[in-house]
Amino acid sequence: MSAKQSGLEAGLDPEEEVTDVVCDEADLRDGEMMEVEVGDHNVLLVRCDGVYSAISNQCTHYGAPLSEGVLSGCRVRCPWHGSCFNVKTGDLEEYPGIDCLPCHKVKVENNKVYVSVKKRIRGQPKRVKWMGVRDQSVSHTVMLLGGGAACLMCAETLRQENYGGRIIMVSRDDLLPYDKTRLSKVMNAESDSLLMRRMDFFHKHDIEVWLKKEALSIDTNKKTVTFDDGLIQSYDQILIATGCRAKGLDCPGANLERVLMLETPEDARCVHYACTGCRTVIVGTSFIGMEVAAYLLDTSSSMTVIGSSELPYQKTLGREIGKVTMTMLEEKGVTFYMNDAVAEVQGKNRRVKAVKLKSGITIEADLLIVAIGVSPNSEFLKGSRVRMDSKNYVIVDEYMRTNITDVYCAGDLTSFPLKMAKGQKVSLGHWQIAQAHGRIAALNMLCREVELNTVPYYWTVLFGRTIRYAGQMTSVG
User: Fold this and answer.
1) In whole angstroms, what is the distance from residue 198 CA to residue 330 CA?
2) Residue 398 pLDDT more than 90?
3) Beta partners for 368?
């Protein structure tokens, strides 16, 4: 009898299990994977380097079937959003997922492959990686400025690497870290449903979270941060990941009621409920603008989109994809005014009633949604020694280090060297990139000397159709 078992077996304690014969040994060649059922549990069976392993078949991000993804060596990539998992350990190796996969025992006997699933993990397709807690004897403090994906992944990585110091995560938001990618896709979602982790998680792993607190300045000589409530907090190492904010219109009428932007779950719900039966106008043909237009189309009485270029996505994905996207929306009834811009927002009784364009065209409107880009939240760094570029993004190296010792930066706020572009400095507001930044920053805080080496990945959804791209977004014709 030969038994080839998954890499997690050594840590399994004896519990009641469900075991099924899932296939013949000859059914799966080396370098192949297949979906199998063990009881009511959906499992991915893989043969890698002559060894069988079994992990949950649902990606921990949004539940995509990994059996439809790509197996490369001992790593499987999710077919939807690119999360990667080690098929031998189930560990997450690439974001945007944040959790690992449970592993199951595999054995081969009499040319039959058997998979055993513990009853306690049936129906639980996720596994949180082991994390340590604070050691009260360690006086070291890491401060994380920002409440997004970069800071969350930094905190988790520190604890996964058994960092025993104090971790303080500070956010000006009133919510724990949440999935911002869903704001323009599920606009009526309750805030609680978007949370990436709940408060008991932070308590369990001794991660302090300060909400509704904003940094006003940083003194890198004294290693202190001053907050809007007067508190001055010291740190030993700090990660700055305060992100970006949506740009508003700079024209008369921009402050009228029902001129809205999309930054928080509350903003998304406000837009969702305000658009019903309205003449809706969207300024901006980026990913956010296009997703919002598609989402609101069925409930608005009319939908108009104003863009500064000839086609949507023209400067990022190119003319061909821009044309396909524009045609798809026009066929659903969306009206486009391209190569134009807003000159004035006209109102009545303090509410928007029309949008006047620079071309002279006037569009009647009950609701105006502004999605014209972002500005970095770096004002509090002015006057500090932290180096920024001409657009006020923080410059970092491949280790997420700024020019100041013990000061790191991550996420949308950074200008960082992209390895696949031969180290060219870029600023990319991608969710998966921010997560990777946070992890790399944590490892280098611990002196691991790990370089950032991840391929940017982004996805958008329009009318159930998904556009995905991997690589560097550059301006194209």
Assistant:
1) 41
2) yes
3) 259, 281
User: What does the alpha-carbon distance between residue 78 and residue 412 come to, in Å, rounded to a whole number?
Assistant: 24
Cβ–Cβ < 8 Å for 35, 54: no
Q: In what order do the strands lie in the sheet with 259-261?
A: 259-261, 367-370, 279-283, 302-306, 335-337
Crossing angle between the packed helical segments 319-331 and 287-296, to the nearest 10 degrees: 20
CB atoms within 10 A of CB 349: 7
Does the model's pTM come out above 0.85? yes
pLDDT at 32 over 70: yes
3-class DSSP state of 415: strand
The Cα–Cα gap between 360 and 348 comes to 19
Q: Hey, what amino acid is at 51? A: V
Residue 408 to residues 130, 144, 160, 290, 394: CA-CA distances in angstroms? 25, 9, 19, 33, 9
CA gap 460, 317 in Å, rounded: 12
Question: How much is the pLDDT for 39?
Answer: 86
Supply the DSSP string of 194-222, one letter for each residue.
Answer: HBSS-HHHHHHTTEEEE-S--EEEEETTT
Q: Would you call 69 helix, strand, or coil by DSSP?
A: coil
**Dmax of the chain from CA atoms?**
83
